[in-house]
Amino acid sequence: MADFPHLSRRGFLNRSAAVGGLLVVPGLLTACSKTDSGAATGAGALEKLREQGFVRVAYANEAPYGYMEGKELKGEAPTLHREIFQALGVKELKPTLSEWDGLIPGLQAGKYDVVSAGMAITPERCGNAIFSEPEFISPTALMVKKGNPKKVTDLESAKEAGITIGVMSGAVEGSYAKGAGIAEGKIKTLQKPQDGADAVKGGRVDAFLLTGISLRWLAKTNPETEVTEAFVPQIDGNAQFSPGGAVFRRGNEDLRDSFNRELKKIVSDRSRYVGLLKEYGFGESEIPPADLKTADLCKG
After folding, report:
1. 85: which residues sit within 8 A by CB, 6+ positions away?
2. Which residue positions in the chain have pLDDT lower than 70?
3. Given this model, what pLDDT does residue 208 score?
4. In sequence order, what are the beta bridge partners of 114?
5. Which tens digits make up the pLDDT trace of 66-99?
6. Using CA of residue 61, residue 270, residue 121, residue 295, what is the dihedral sign?
């Protein structure tokens, strides 16, 4: 098996953090106000990318979203974005590694053209960059022992079965479990994904609650476990989709719109979407609903 980067829950949690908050630090706005002279900007951005033959993309080395394996850029976002840009006449992705918190500032500074890191679409981030339409959603799932002895399928069935649920420390899944009416005494906090898998295997919890994407990736190295079908939790009647997309610099709306046209062709074709991304744990349950729009997500 390839030596993949460690699956970082902190990195995943940062998807919902207010990255835009970093941009109000004195001096940082000034540092980001100038763009690199090589940046593809404005109405002619796509034509410039076609002429040079590549698009500069940023990744944070977080599997399964965007990471380097040997000399190959892999993951959900690079795979999807490579397909889209090739359809737009841009042959190559030219990668730049960035710390997660530096992705948007680097984009603003013109260090690259697109963030290809599976970044969640939040109102805070929408204030500092422009997003594609959702390219995936992150429904939740349960990791259980092989055979699913408690026969749980979602949080409602977990509550009815009276099982003990493991969640990540500080993660949103704890609120999902409480919102489903699971007693606090039945919710155990764990520090990292592998702790959750170990707790399931050791019988310390009956199920581990996390995104289906992350759990399917984790199950690759924990064959004694299995992952339930993904489901969308509800909080106060609101579905928790956690959608992510590609990120573009302000001023590149035309480039974003061209990207969206090709993206729509892929997410509208279930077999094509799954065929491209199943290697990274993405399936039909991760396909965004047609009525889930970035404009609405940016409003909050």
Report:
1. 49, 55, 91, 93, 259
2. 1-38, 41-43
3. 98
4. 57, 248
5. 999 999 999 999 999 999 999 999 999 999 999 9
6. positive
Q: What pLDDT sits at residue 172?
A: 84
Residue with tokens 């990255």: 19
Q: Tell me the C-alpha distance between 19 and 218, whole Å.
A: 26
- The helix (H) or strand (E) run that includes residue 116 is strand 114-120
Q: Are strands 130-131 and 67-69 parallel, antiparallel or unpaired?
A: unpaired
- The alpha carbons of the chain give a radius of gyration, in whole angstroms, of 20
List b or e across 274-299, with b for residues whose CB sees 16 or more CB atoms inside 10 angstroms.
eebbeebbbbebbbbeeeeebeebbe
CA–CA distance, 218 with 226 (Å, rounded to integer): 10
C-alpha–C-alpha distance, residues 156 and 144, integer Å: 15
Q: Residue 138 has what pLDDT?
A: 92
Q: Tell me which amino acid residue 25 is.
A: V
C-alpha to C-alpha distances, 289 to 71, 244, 265, 284, nearest whole angstrom:
34, 13, 13, 10
Nearest-angstrom CA–CA distance, 203 and 155: 18
